[in-house]
UniProtKB/TrEMBL annotation:
Residues 52-158 form the Nose resistant-to-fluoxetine protein N-terminal domain. The keyword Membrane applies. This is Nose resistant to fluoxetine protein 6. It comes from Eumeta variegata. InterPro entries: Acyl_transf_3_dom (IPR002656), Nose-resist-to-fluoxetine_N (IPR006621), O2_lipid_transport_reg (IPR052728).
């Protein structure tokens, strides 16, 4: 009887994990023979660990015991994929091989087939790919080799099996027209400026609205007005980055993972907090939406004028969001299905079918309430945000100047009542329904959590109304320097830091496998997002009034301005790109935190590129057309050059009502 040492077992694994070429003269597999950089590895470790007698004993145990053999077989040699297409290499599962640890006692019991170390292998269903002749059904093909095999067919694919649908022709026509307009407008713009060398101020605004040249200049021109909240650039950019990194994780784990069991260990560690807390970024957007709703509307006139122009308030908001949303939906419903292919393309097909069925629900911003599949899953946020805008005039009307003196008391009462009412309603709803705090903590009830809590306007409203409070405070002291004592500023910063830190770090105990506290879940579901919104709201207020220090300097850097302007387009496009890329994968993803980070950077760059294209071709032109619609008629571009103009389309993101639409 013997008990093998861990380092000797690790040596055996290291030898098995080597790559070897087999020929008639088989030599020992040594790292010094395989690597030209022998000095980078501890060769003595390999030499000293050789023990032929111990190796014979271990091999005999492994060959006699299925439980011991399975990890080595699973991680080791297999026929290279694509061997008939020139691939003669298969690396096995490197990390799985190196991770095998086992202490073995040489007893008769150890030679029996044990199942405790390989849980429920006999009852597990595996998913495999099968290549069969076109003329054969799956049942017929499998019956020829294993008649008693119990299987369920998922889907079959054939070359050229993606039929062209009417929506594909619509997409080709629409985007062809847009492309032609971009080409015409850009040529007109370039000829006017460089060939004819005429005054740019005399160019027709209508003719250049689709010009890539002018729209790129405007996109890259950063000039803020006196009332601008520069720190919002950094907050918006960081928030969209946080959204993308969170979706990188969630979409990656929806596809096959080599080390799926390891993810649960990672989720229960502190290393996962930056991912598990990513949904808080959505509450940042809700808070900013409410803040800007007040900040940009309350200064425009009296209550009477606001009520008189209420239809324009709604129309402006809807039209401002419509072009990019419609373009993203059309792309998802048509071209996304044909852009590539892969073994998991059925996932893309489901997303495409969802948009073909529910495109009108998405455009009406009713996806969180009307039954049916959600087109562009992330656009639930737009539906909730629009619904909050629909009811915001109930509060906004009291925040506008009354016309004849006074009004502040009514304004503060209105925003306070709105916050308290939304918190009370959300609290009652959450305590009555006993939702889990996080879907991972109750995987068997994810559908109910997402539909009834996560995308519910009632439960997501408090951060929006908290944003109204901070927006009203910023409006009232728009032109006034507020003098606060250093002690009070320190207390407020400490409170804000404590609230936001609590919202992040509370995820750690909640996600532990032994957690079970429904009362705490109800409390967090009711108030945690509001805590986060209060902390971020104070940050904006402090930065605006000179109490932000280095935080304000960092958030106001120019490097944030471009991703902030592109954030709406990035939000609409990034998940579709992720799903397409993951559906093309030919092998399972090996999950590590660094692999996740590298994947995120690829997703981020692709999202920025797609956002730039759609912003220049769709968002910027239609923003200019909308401005012309509200101002009346096509005019000459005679205000200033594009580099100086701070009142046209994309630049409006930092001026007036267009500000709130860039999120």
């Amino acid at each position: 009887m013997f008990k093998s040492k861990t380092w000797l077992i690790l040596l055996f694994i290291n030898i098995l994990s080597c790559n070897a070429n087999f020929d008639n003269n088989v030599n020992a597999l040594r790292n010094k023979d395989l690597s030209p950089q022998r000095n980078l590895f501890d060769q003595d470790l390999y030499d000293d660990s050789l023990d032929p007698d111990l190796c014979d004993k271990q091999l005999s145990l492994i060959l006699a015991n299925t439980t011991f053999a399975l990890p080595f077989l699973d991680a080791g040699f297999r026929v290279p994929r694509g061997i008939l297409e020139g691939n003669l290499v298969d690396l096995g599962n490197y990390h799985q091989c190196l991770a095998i640890r086992q202490n073995i006692e040489d007893t008769p019991q150890s030679r029996e087939i044990l199942t405790s170390d390989v849980p429920m292998l006999s009852s597990m269903a595996v998913t495999v790919a099968l290549c069969i002749p076109k003329a054969c059904s799956t049942h017929q093909a499998l019956s020829a080799v294993a008649a008693s095999l119990d299987f369920t067919e998922d889907y079959c694919r054939l070359p050229g099996d993606k039929p062209t649908a009417p929506v594909d022709y619509v997409a080709i026509c629409v985007f062809s027209v847009i492309g032609a307009l971009v080409l015409f407008s850009t040529c007109y713009d370039l000829l006017y400026v460089f060939l004819y060398k005429k005054d740019p101020k005399e160019k027709s605004t209508l003719y250049i609205c689709f010009s890539v040249y002018t729209n790129t200049q405007r996109l890259l021109t950063f000039k803020a007005g006196a009332d601008s909240l520069d720190c919002l650039d950094g907050i918006r950019a960081i928030s969209i980055i946080w959204v993308i990194v969170g979706h990188t994780h969630s979409t990656a784990t929806e596809f096959p993972i080599q080390n799926l069991l390891r993810i649960s260990e990672w989720i229960q560690s502190y290393n996962s907090l930056w991912i598990m807390a990513a949904p808080l970024s959505v509450d940042t957007f809700f808070m900013m939406s409410g803040l800007l709703c007040v900040y940009t509307v309350a200064k425009k006139g009296t209550r009477r004028s606001f009520l008189k122009n209420l239809p324009l308030f709604y129309l402006h908001r809807y039209l401002r969001m419509f072009p990019l949303l419609a373009a993203a939906i059309l792309l998802q419903a048509s071209l996304a299905h044909h852009v590539a292919d892969g073994p998991f393309w059925s996932t893309v097909a489901r997303e495409v079918d969802s948009c073909r069925q529910s495109w009108w629900i998405a455009l009406l911003h009713l996806q969180n309430y009307v039954s049916g599949p959600i087109c562009l899953g992330q656009t639930w946020y737009l539906s909730v945000d629009m619904q909050l805008y629909w009811i915001s005039p109930l509060v906004l009307v009291w925040l506008c100047a009354p016309g004849r003196g006074g009004g502040r008391r009514a304004g503060w009462c209105a925003v306070t009542l709105a916050v308290l009412t939304s918190l009370l309603a959300a609290t009652i709803y959450c305590f009555l329904n006993d939702f889990p705090f996080h879907p991972i903590s109750n995987t068997g009830n994810v559908g109910r959590y997402m539909q009834d809590y996560y995308i519910n306007t009632l439960t997501r409203a408090p951060p929006f109304f908290i944003g109204l409070v901070f927006g009203y405070a910023l409006h009232l002291w728009r032109d006034t320097k507020i003098e606060l004592s250093k002690i009070l500023v320190g207390i407020l910063w400490t409170l804000a830091g404590a609230l936001t830190s609590f919202a992040v770090f509370v995820h750690y105990p909640i996600l532990q496998s032994d957690y079970d506290n429904q009362l705490l879940d109800n409390f967090l579901n009711s108030y945690m997002r509001s805590f986060w919104a209060i902390g971020v709201g104070w940050l904006v207020f402090a930065c605006k009034h000179g109490y932000g220090g280095p935080i304000n300097w960092f958030l106001s850097l120019r490097l944030w301005k471009l991703p902030a302007r592109l954030s709406y387009a990035m939000y609409l496009l990034h998940m579709s790109a992720m799903i397409i890329i993951n559906s093309m994968q030919l092998s399972p993803f090996y999950f590590t935190q660094w692999n996740l980070i590298f994947t995120f950077f690829a997703d981020m760059v692709l999202a920025i590129l797609l956002a730039v294209v759609l912003t220049l071709a769709v968002d910027a032109p239609f923003s200019t057309l909308q401005k012309m619609l509200f101002e009346g008629g096509a005019k000459k571009s005679n205000q200033s050059s594009p580099l100086q103009n701070n009142n046209v389309q994309i630049i409006d993101a930092y001026k007036d009502q267009d500000l709130e639409s860039y999120k």
